[in-house]
Please model this.
Amino acid sequence: MKPTGVIFFPAFDWAISPTHPEREERLLYTRDQLFEEGIMDMPEVREYHPRLATAKEVSRVHFCVPDVESRVTQAHMVSAGCAMVMADSFMQKEVKNAFAIIRPPGHHAMTVVHGNRGFCDINNEAVMVEYLRRTYGIKRLAIVDTDVHHGDGSQEIFWHDPDVLFISFHQDGRTLYPGSGFTDELGGPLAYGTTINIPMAPKTTDTGIHYIMDNLVLPILEEFKPELVINSAGQDNHYSDPLANMSFTAQGYAVLNQKLRPDIAVLEGGYSVETALPYINMGIIMAMAGIDFSNLREPDYNPSRFKESPGNMDYIRALIDRQLENFRGREAVVEANRKKGREFDSYSRSIFYDTNYLQEEQRLDLRMCPDCCGFRRISSSCVHASGRQYSIYGICLPMACCPTCGERARSDYDEMKKKAGYNYIYLQDRVRDEYRTFDCGSAEETVL
Amino acid sequence: MLIGIDVGGTFTDGALFSDASVVHSVKHPTDENDLAATLLGVLDELLKHAETKGVRRIVLSTTLVTNLLATGKGERTALLLLPGSGMPFSAYSISPDTYFLKGGIDFRGRQIEPTDKKEIEEALRQIEKTGIERVAVAGKFSNRNDSHEKLVMEMIKDLYPHMDVCISNEIAGRLNFPRRAVTCYYTAMTIRQWNAFADGIEAAVRGRVPGCELHILKADGGTTTLEASRRRPCETVFSGPAASAMGTVALNREPLNCVSVDIGGTTSDVCLLIDGQPLYASKGALIGGHLTHIHSFAVNSVAIGGDSAVYEESGELRVGPMRNGVAACFGGASPAVTDAFNILEDLKLGDIQASRTKLEIVAGRLNLQLEDICRKVADIVTEKLKESIVYMFSQWESEPAYKVWEVVHQRKFVLHHVIGIGAAAPAIVPMLAKKLGVTHILHRYSPVANALGAALARPTLAVEVHVDTQRRAYTASPGGLSGPVEDRNYQMKDARKLAERLLREISGERGLSAYADDARVYLEEQFNVIRGYQQTGKLFDVGIQIAPGFIHEYKGVEQ
Model:
């Protein structure tokens, strides 16, 4: 039997600020626990060495303003690199599944990056997904986000991508950052129904979450038939997490992984550094590696402490029914949207960056292509922490787009270079695996 | 004058060193059944060439403990484990006589679950009934709080004074519970036999060379006094490769990246030197299928050596892994690897005509010219060694990293030299170096490098301190030391001072004071403990060591 690949990257020399939840100490006790248990010595586990992501790999997903090097910390580059090391180990069949225990996290980072959102600069899973597509020809994937916070960054990045099923479990957005992830957020007009949100009431327990797994998540994964399942393995649903209010346990996380059987899991949030993380990380490794985890428990664990309320179970059952219906009716909705005959579907929005208190204004057009999932054009402006205002224009051309969209996107890019009013024009050409940045001030173009 | 003796599996080497040169060297076959006699035989022959009074220090490297553990001849030993929560108990298949006890400690040294005295008493009754007299005790996170281990030890001393007991935190105080348990178990298993051996050797040496220092070589390439080794016999495993590695370094003191290839009869040991320092196995020595906390060199053994047979089988050329005696040029009945190199490089080793005659027979069977078969053999041998070397590079480069700095500054191994050690090295190493595109070094003392390494190695000692200012306590290894930390404004410099003080104290106890000034800090980590956006404490980890090196009087050898 092949081992489970594990990469442990605690970034012991990096913090957002000394007392920030995302600080050096975060994975210290997890290190102590993993090392003391000797789990990395077990034949069921193989440990890997981290690497840096390259600017090109990041540019497959993001428009980093002004560029990757000046926008993204090295810690984030290592984190994303680690996710790709795990992807390689899995795709090259060295391991049966893989778990990246890494920080900093990534699931709040969106396509355009003006700064840090929810402790994230870049989206580790999204960078890994595009790497998997480019390197290994994977097309269809599912991301199951089990972090207590809504994975709004991953949702935004894959919103228009019908080949990525994004499912997010989280505490109800009316009670927690980032305040999104409601059941009516179901994806863009041509990718409707491949974004599924599962907002849960505060205090939901193992029982509730496992019920959702069995009756919603597993059935729709079965129907979607992804080539690969990724778990955004946030650990802040735990009963001791200081930033959230759920009642999940380490045993609960281990069982969830046993049910989900992810091919690759990537750590996201989780800030109960002493009481939860050491035990949940052990639990996930053990579940993925097939090691008996019945002896694993938190020091203050009491099996009878949390009971799911009948009222919450009623809510969960109704939620499941609604989301199953949304998922199963998705193709009809996409078909109807295509027939509306508009050339572009446009909308505007504001995006808040909580870490740096930035406000981004964005306008987005999606080409309503009759033959493919279309391409996106984003114009975005934001005053950075430095005080300087940036206005940028980015065009995202997905790998699965049709030749017409390809030509149109490239000619739009050339047109935009001539226009005034922007600092930078970007073209993310995943078909050619070519990433262009045009600096309007100096009229210089860089190509990755 | 200095004496080093390396008792190997096949041969025992001894060297007498004085004034920058080897005065005399001895090679005897090893008698596995009487290591002490072999050792003293070599010592006596060396002493003939030395004025008895002039011998200041003798260092021994022996295979006794390695053999006891490899052959399962250690004494039956019970293992008492206090694993608490976490891995399943089935993960600990270390001793057939394992007893699991209640009691849990966490990573901060806090008790999670108390021990149960009744349960301990019952386990001890069982052990007593089976007639076992050696007991090893290991608890998870005992290195952060060993009160449970100590309680069990006290109960054993109290109830069954005839039993010998070892606790894991005193033997090996670093994180990794299974490795600590294994190391403690092996210690308990070999401690009596080692002490019996030590008694015999000590008396014999004192009788011959009164007043001379007597040291034992450890797996980490450092020495320890015979006296100090009595409590930690396990540290003496794998001292053979350590002797070779230290000898290699003694003869090549430039801080370069090298690979040393010790070519024996049927195996070759490959070892990396990084900036002139031999590389350690990152996970500790592997003994009997279990990883331990014993610091040992990373050695990769390749099943090919100078005596590996060269023969034909089903129309194919084969090289090794078995040997049929020595190479033909040295009087062997059939051709071996050395013969092929002898011809190819015109080395004029022994009877080169014998090399030719014997290899021609094999060449004939394969319809090859003599020259071709030699080249093929050389290719096979150097390719295997190269593979092993490249593998070791890549292993070193891909060690896990836990800091951004380490990833940004990616390790890259750039090779400078190949160093040849062992009898067959002159035949094989030059061509191997050519293949790797670097120069080779063959020192005239390389045949006695192992004994020389033992003779010249200095003592080593590593002390690691863990300070938790929130809990106002420190723990330290080795020896399971602990104490209070009073200062509310404790800083890294204070933790460093504490580590230095403890290193001096332990050096004194172990008779190594002369080297305490050579200690260097190799680990410094500090973490702020933040609860609710407030700092509530600091955690410090400091490691300080007298690293492997050479005794003060060694200034190099005469060229």
About this structure: Residues 302-442 of chain B form one domain. The radius of gyration of chain B is 26 Å. The CA atoms of residues 40 and 204 of chain B lie 8 Å apart.
